[in-house]
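Entry 12.
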Amino acid sequence: MSQFLEVAVEAAREAGSILLQDAGHPRNIVYKGEVDLVTDTDKRSEAAIVSRLLTRFPQHAIIAEEGGGNSAADARYCWHVDPLDGTTNFAHGYPCSAVSIALLEEGAPIVGVVLNPFSNELFSAMRGEGAYLNQKRIHVSTVETLSKSLVATGFPTRKVRTSTNIQYYWEFTLRTHGVRRDGSAALDLCSVASGRFEAFWEFGLRSWDTAAGILLVKEAGGTVTDLSGRPYHPGGSEILASNGRVHAEMQKVAADIVERAASSAPSA
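Predicted 3D structure (tokens):
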């Protein structure tokens, strides 16, 4: 498995150099939806990653955000690639973006790498081997209660006007030290893994957004489920990742929100 991690790190470093080269330069921005954008940098980064992965592992499948992979439904190994997580941040010159690369074996993450080239922070994990930041072992925080926690979330670029997450944002803002919304799910998950955040939740993320990050959280000693406590799989409709200690409190708040929404809904 170490060869997989080695290549993932190489690919992330190469893609990260592309992000750094393009930072601060004019960008050709294309909108995939009303607010969901993509830049030439996304595409160049993805092409570099996919090329390296296919060269080293031609039998592996690749699912990449901008469509540059070679999806094969029956492949034992499948890479999930986000070449620039936080494209909106990048387009505005805000240095909170990352390259996220994960390898799944029969649907379960076994290798995860997330690189923020602007801070030179490389997060990496292999299943059963722990989580690391720049080759130093990391762990989730030891905070025991939600009231003493710093948590994070994000809002969808798709169907943004119909998102119910503002209700969760409000409730968790009242019950914690604060809620951060930094625009990169991959980095938010890394912040949970490294103890910067106690928890992260979000709706509507894709597999390439979370596959590497959830492995990092688990290998750092944290817990990852959906908001009701069911197992989370990359690409699931909702995610809750935490240090494990505040997980039940987070679930209880989420359940209360769902219950209130149901009781206030007009009857048919």
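Annotation: The longest strand covers residues 77-85. The mean pLDDT is 91.
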